[in-house]
């Protein structure tokens, strides 16, 4: 069993939502590694039962143990969201395995993937991710394997931002499982970070992006180990970062133009001269402004995407767009900050108002519980605390004197309640 072979998956399959146990995940990876680039249909891929059980480090070599894994796996579904050839969004709910077959007494088993998975595992020409089987097979968590795949997909870009809720869905985390982000971080993210750094060809750090004091997104910073080569079918070869980055730029092109040689040549030349960031910002500008991609976005500028992209690359239209986006973001941040401050001030005023209502109510309760003698004593104490001028006004029963006495009495009660 060659653990150096490659696993190739469509990026749609990488981002699918499903949950498998560690052994089930490894079973699928082993089966996927059997697929050859030339395969046009799924075969009943043969796997040695003894090799397979050794592969999973299962000491009891028996059909029963294999049957258990297969039976549960055949009942597992996943949800794949993908764009069809017309650019329409599709949702596919599908099982991993359609059939297994073995002759009792033999040491091999034939297994087929579900036919609906053909576009995501066979004849992959674009939007796919590949990695060595041995880089993930030693991982001890199914979550670690999935996070490895999601980050491997973006290794050329060096970072990936994922909404926490979307990440939970892709990993198959149940709503009630690790419902608090702190638990999700402790049980899923941090163990994966440690495992990937120790056992695979990449590692990562991450940044928590908060909204309203809650962590809503994670920005992963992906690091490729310098000593880790990318394997081919027969030997390990090093793929330069430039090749990886160029492929990522091709992947940013719209579907109808991604395989056009003239468009790819535009991108390749600009990349060689100006670098990744320059080309990326101008592809994004063209994608946003061209009628070929976004009908009606720029009615007066035609719809030839190639010409639109060429003009963007020639004049670097993407740079002012970036500046505009920064200005827009700064404005949005300022507006959000202002709105947050106003909201905090409103909450503060509401809390103070509610507090005053509660204190006033407690003062009235305190007064009601006083005897007439107690009220007279409190009244005299309030008068004694007044300045001579106010005391004279009270003795003469001047205008507003009773209100002054009442406020002075309430002030004394307020202090007593606070002390209590």
Question: Can you characterise this structure?
Answer:
There is one protein chain. Helices cover 53% and strands 16% of the residues. With 420 residues, it is α+β, with helices and mostly antiparallel strands. It has 4 domains: 9-123, Winged helix-like DNA-binding domain superfamily/Winged helix DNA-binding domain (Arc Repressor Mutant, subunit A, Orthogonal Bundle), CATH 1.10.10; 138-239, Winged helix-like DNA-binding domain superfamily/Winged helix DNA-binding domain (Arc Repressor Mutant, subunit A, Orthogonal Bundle); 256-316, no CATH class; 370-420, no CATH class. The strands form 5 sheets. It has a 3-stranded antiparallel β-sheet with strand order 2-6-5. Strands 8-10-9 form a 3-stranded antiparallel β-sheet. Helix 7 (142-152) crosses helix 9 (181-199). The longest helix has 51 residues, at 318-368. The protein starts with 5 loop residues before the first strand and ends with a helix.
């Amino acid at each position: 069993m060659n653990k150096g072979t490659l696993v190739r998956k469509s990026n749609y399959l990488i981002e699918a939502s499903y949950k498998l146990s560690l052994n089930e995940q490894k079973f699928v990876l082993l089966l996927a590694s059997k697929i050859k680039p030339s395969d046009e249909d799924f075969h009943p891929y043969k796997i040695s039962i003894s090799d397979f059980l050794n592969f999973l480090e299962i000491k009891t070599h028996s059909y029963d143990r294999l049957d258990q894994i297969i039976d549960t796996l055949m009942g597992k579904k996943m949800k794949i969201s993908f764009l069809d050839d017309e650019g329409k969004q599709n949702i596919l709910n599908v099982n991993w395995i359609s059939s297994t077959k073995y002759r009792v007494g033999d040491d091999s088993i034939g297994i087929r993937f579900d036919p609906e998975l053909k576009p995501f595992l066979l004849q992959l020409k674009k939007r796919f991710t590949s990695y060595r089987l041995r880089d993930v097979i030693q991982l001890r968590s199914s979550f670690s394997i999935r996070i490895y795949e999601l980050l491997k997909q973006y290794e050329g870009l060096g970072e990936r931002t994922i909404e926490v809720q979307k990440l939970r869905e892709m990993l198959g985390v149940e709503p009630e499982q690790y419902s608090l982000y702190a638990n999700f971080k402790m049980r899923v993210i941090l163990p994966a970070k440690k495992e990937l750094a120790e056992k695979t060809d990449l590692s990562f750090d991450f940044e928590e992006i908060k909204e309203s004091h809650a962590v809503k997104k994670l920005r992963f910073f992906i690091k490729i180990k310098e000593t880790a080569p990318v394997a081919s079918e027969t030997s390990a070869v090093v793929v330069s970062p430039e090749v990886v980055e160029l492929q990522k730029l091709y992947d940013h092109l719209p579907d109808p133009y991604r395989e056009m040689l003239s468009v790819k040549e535009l991108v390749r030349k600009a990349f060689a001269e100006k670098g990744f960031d320059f080309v990326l910002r101008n592809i994004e500008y063209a994608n946003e402004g061209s009628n070929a991609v976004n009908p009606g976005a720029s009615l007066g500028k035609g719809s030839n995407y190639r010409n639109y992209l060429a003009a963007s690359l020639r004049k670097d239209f993407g740079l002012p767009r970036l500046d505009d986006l920064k200005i827009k973001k700064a404005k949005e941040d300022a507006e959000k900050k202002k709105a947050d401050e106003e909201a905090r001030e409103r909450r503060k005023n509401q809390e103070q108002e509610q507090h005053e209502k509660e204190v006033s109510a407690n003062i009235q309760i305190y007064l009601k519980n006083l005897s007439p003698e107690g009220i007279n004593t409190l009244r005299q104490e309030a008068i004694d605390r007044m300045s001579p001028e106010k005391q004279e006004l009270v003795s003469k029963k001047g205008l507003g004197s009773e209100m002054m006495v009442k406020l002075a009495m309430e002030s004394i009660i307020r202090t007593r309640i606070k002390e209590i």
